[in-house]
Amino acid sequence: LEKMTDLVAVWEVALSDGVHKIEFEHGTTSGKRVVYVDGKEEIRREWMFKLVGKETFTVGATKTKAAINIDAVSGFAYEYTLEINGKSLKQYMENRLKTTNTWILNLGGTDYRIVLEKDTMDVWCNGEKMETAGEFVEDGTETHFTVADHNCCIKAVSSGKRKEGIIHTLIVDNREIPEAVE
Prior knowledge:
The protein has 182 residues and is mainly beta. The chain has two domains: 7-85, Lipocalin (Beta Barrel); 94-177, Lipocalin. It contains one helix and 17 strands. The strands form four sheets. Strands 13-14-15-16-17 form a five-stranded antiparallel sheet, with no helix packed on it. The protein is elongated, with a radius of gyration of 20 Å. It starts with 6 loop residues before the first strand and ends in a 5-residue tail after the last strand. Belongs to the FAIM1 family. Keywords: Apoptosis, Cytoplasm.
């Protein structure tokens, strides 16, 4: 593996199927551009005469759209910005906080990252979309699934406040798991 001498930017992006590392090499003398996702080369361009522009690719199991914008700041200085689904990384992550819940827990010595996509009610665990069973209960809904022989349930109940909306709680083996902040 050649040494990444032209590495100019590294981002970590939390998606439903996991946290992905995006690395970007930009050779400003050679015009080289290389994009790595989770250590795997996705794009390689040699001898690009135009040093500014955009590289587009996908990330993760859900093939989320991503783009790196290369802009000249001054002289030979460049700025690199990452977009996810057409939004800046910051906007994307802020929106994700509203549309997903994430829990990190350890069961039998193994770490699990569970993500609920509120719009679809899809549940992801360590990069796998889970088989779930939903049911209506007296005070809301319950989404049941199993992780490593542990019974898991995401309860959705109304907060009673319009601004807060629905509160989602993960319960594993009758124990409430606190939500993680990524």
